[in-house]
Amino acid sequence: MNTLTETASHDTEHHHGPAKGIKRWIFTTNHKDIGTLYLWFAFIMFLVGGAMAMVIRAELFQPGLQIVEPHFFNQMTTVHGLIMVFGAVMPAFTGMANWMIPMMIGAPDMALPRMNNLSFWILPFAFLILLASLFVEGGGPAFGWTFYAPLSTTYSGDSTALFVFAVHIMGISSIMGAINVIVTIWNMRAPGMTWMKMPLFVWTWFITAYLLIAVMPVLAGAVTMVLTDKYFGTSFFNAAGGGDPVMFQHIFWFFGHPEVYIMILPAFGIISTIVPTFSRKPLFGYPSMVYATASIAFLSFIVWAHHMFTTGMPVFAELFFMYCTMLISVPTGVKVFNWVATMWRGALSFEVPMLFSIAFIVLFTLGGFSGLMLAITPVDFQYHDTYFVVAHFHYVLVTGAIFSLIAATYYWLPKWTGVMYDIGLAKLHFWCSLISVNVLFFPMHFVGLAGMPRRIPDYSIQFANWNQLISLGGFAFGLSQLIFLALVIKACRKQGEPVPAKVWDGAHGLEWEVASPAPYHTFTTPPEIK
Amino acid sequence: MANQSNANTRLVNRLLLVVVAMFGFGFALVPLYDVFCDLTGLNGRSVQRVDALAQSLVDDSRVIKIEFVTFDKTGKQMTFRPQAQYLQVHPGEMKEVTFTINNPLSHLQIVQAIPSVSPGQASLYLNKAECFCFNQQSLEPERVSEFKLKFFIDKDLPKNIEVLTLAYTLYPIEQPVVAQVLRR
To answer: What sign does the dihedral A340-A341-A344-A348 (CA atoms) show?
Structure first.
């Protein structure tokens, strides 16, 4: 893939640059500006949600109740989950998509720039509403991020209305973002950028966007039903009126399971971009990666009830969902083996993005294995709602999704800012994060298998030692992320060595053909792809 | 450029259609769930209502134990009891059980009893000719009310089911919050 040199001269002539001051950010329709907004927003939300996790871990440092009330503890677990899923991971991936997809496919911008602006700017309001709900009388949502009925209908406070509207706005924002990604990839690829030439990050996002438009409306429907059950006397989930609370779980997990793939498929794309760069080899098995992604997306729709094995399903249904769930490990295994095969006999070098990617491959696979254990119906009865589940989904979301986002930032940050970040700090960040994240989440497997339930502010005395260690790991992981914050701020202030257009010598792709930092407008004339 | 924006509009419209359809699908899951459960008896709710005269032949060769369980979810300290903890019945044989509910409060209460049968599969073979659970019931203040259940078990009940449990949960019927606000 090479561009004509002509594009470079196009890039340098600024017919209009960014506006000045705050108005640049409010009215911007530029994909790079919006990408930056999304990424900063996600990072702020990551810190807010992280602060809530610190409250949770501080309370769990010792058995007994010492720091917060149980009701407030429940609000912390609920809002921590909601913020990390909808406020940190999803907007961060959307930010990456905004920044990178147009540059990777040789498009001048996203296809629908004004909708792009709107889809970002409604997001802060959604989270303002959600956070404000913590301060209303009776407290914020305390029913867990899964808001199971009747906890969210019969037994919830009046902040539920705020929660519902916040989720509606988040959903609309994600749907608009997803539509934009699909239209951009369908219609704006540069001539010669055929489907099977697209970078894998673009492919995985393309499939993720379809998942988003398929399931976010179902989530919107579920919260709407909670709202009408609570305030308007409907009985969707109310047994007294002929409804069924178990149905809530079916509807929720019909959204919820594809949602977990929404949070991991773009991560697969990122790892598939970084590993070949630092192995100095093309990605092993590109077509199989595309098909594996599509298969995972398809399977994600027929496994939802594995979250509900203990609700009293017939044995046939339990077996069906168990086998389908285990089937997902086949395409996922294809991906992991492809990454390993890419590294096999490659000229490896261990720059920071590569360090995070290798940590991703190892630790995500570990999370995948505990997922496989949870898929086994009979043993799930033991693991259900214990810390083992917490360990599982934090391995796939923190050392999976979040590590891939950090790797992506270390990979593309020099392209965004034009300077190399402080590599010493970055390595410090990597080692602190890697060690603390395992101190934080690995012992959760043990206390979970021993029977410690999740979402409870107190625990039996025999779990005390492990929990103390887990909390220490948690505080260390939280503090480590401040290193990352300092590093990114330093890079944004252009403190560092300037970098050439092609920052990493093994990198391929159109984003490395434009200057560093990437000019405000790129590919106003489409590049030619050979 | 005009072509490009036309193509974009067309694609956006199609994708919006998908979004609207999926929002509708979320709600369509509600009736679909009920139909699915009724066909399979999955959640034990699909008790068969039959005519009081619809009797079938009695199968004397089998005895089925049917247990009665009651739960009070009104939160109003009502005493909800079956007259018998269990009955031994032959499939096809019509039986009658009385349930009593004591309303200790000084005003009329409206309640609804919701049945659930386990194992769920058995719910397809439990035929009710008369049940207080068919309707909402009003409970006179400070009085014990009696309610009747008339049922028979279909003689096609699978052979592996020998015990079945019929549970009733009593729920209060209250005005929804909005209606309360409007009445004020």
So the answer is: negative
User: Least CA distance to A172: which residue of chain B?
Assistant: B19
d(CA A187, CA B10): 11
ipTM of the complex: 0.89
User: What local confidence, expressed as pLDDT, does residue A427 receive?
Assistant: 98
- Kindly tell me the sign of the dihedral angle through the C-alpha atoms of A466, A469, A473, A479: positive
B143 and B108 within one domain: yes
Q: Which two tokens stand for residue A292?
A: 């594996």
Rg of chain A over Cα atoms, rounded to whole angstroms, equals: 23
Q: Catalogue the active-site residues of A.
A: 80, 109, 145, 173-174, 257, 259, 261, 272, 306-307, 332, 335, 454
Does one domain contain both B165 and B103?
yes
Between chain A and chain B, how many beta carbons pairs sit less than 8 Å apart?
94
Tokens of A141: 């949502």
Residues B66 and B128 placed together within one structural domain of the fold: yes
> What crossing angle do the helices spanning A464-492 and A403-417 adopt, rounded to 10°?
10
Confidence bin at A343 (pLDDT 50/70/90): very high
Question: b/e per residue, A103-130, with b = 16+ CB within 10 A?
Answer: bbbbbbbbbbbebbbebbbebbebbebb
Cα-based angle A308, A464, A479 (whole degrees, multiple of 5): 85
Give the CB-side neighbour count of residue B94, counting CA atoms within 13 A: 14
| Facing residue for B15 by CB, picked from A213, A222, A240 | A213
Is B11–A183 a contact, with Cβ atoms under 8 angstroms apart? yes
Q: Per the structure, how many domains does chain B have?
A: 2
Residue B120 lies in a domain: yes
- At residue B110, what is the residue type? I
Residue B37 placed within a domain: yes
Q: How many angstroms away from the CA of B57 is the closest CA of chain A?
A: 30
What would the two tokens of residue B47 be? 């008790």
pLDDT at A37 over 50: yes
Over residues A59-70, mean pLDDT: 95
Cα–Cα distance measured from residue A243 to residue A236, given in angstroms and rounded to the nearest whole number: 5
Contact between A4 and A528 (Cβ < 8 Å): yes
Q: Which DSSP category does A386 fall into?
A: B
Cα–Cα distance measured from residue B93 to residue B89, given in angstroms and rounded to the nearest whole number? 7
Q: What single DSSP character describes residue A309?
A: G
Name the phi and psi angles at A297, rounded to 5.
-60, -40
Chain B residues contacting A, CB < 8 Å? 4, 7-8, 11-12, 15-16, 18-20, 22-23, 25-27, 29-30, 33, 37, 40, 42-43, 45, 73, 112, 114, 120-121, 169, 171-173, 175-179
Following CA atoms A265, A270, A275, A281 in sequence, which dihedral angle do they give, to the nearest 10 degrees? 100
Q: Is A125 helix (H, G, I), strand (E, B) or coil?
A: helix
Q: Which two tokens stand for residue A298?
A: 């398809």
Smallest CA–CA distance, residue A264 to chain B, in Å, is 22
N-term to C-term CA, chain A: 5
Residue B144 lies in a domain: yes
My answer on whether B18 and B82 are in the same domain is no
Q: Tell me: do B8 and B72 sit in the same domain.
A: no
* Minimal C-alpha gap between B5 and chain A (Å): 9
Q: Which of A443, A481, A408 has its CA nearest to residue A44?
A: A481
Please report, for the domain that includes residue B94, its CATH number: 2.60.370.10
What are the DSSP calls for A411-431, one per residue?
HHHHHHHSB---HHHHHHHHH
Q: What is the pTM of this model?
A: 0.90
Supply the pLDDT for residue A12.
46
* Whole-angstrom distance, CA of residue B141 vs CA of residue A260: 52
Q: What domain range includes position B18?
A: 2-42
Q: Which of A231, A246, A251 sits opposite B26 (nearest CB)?
A: A251
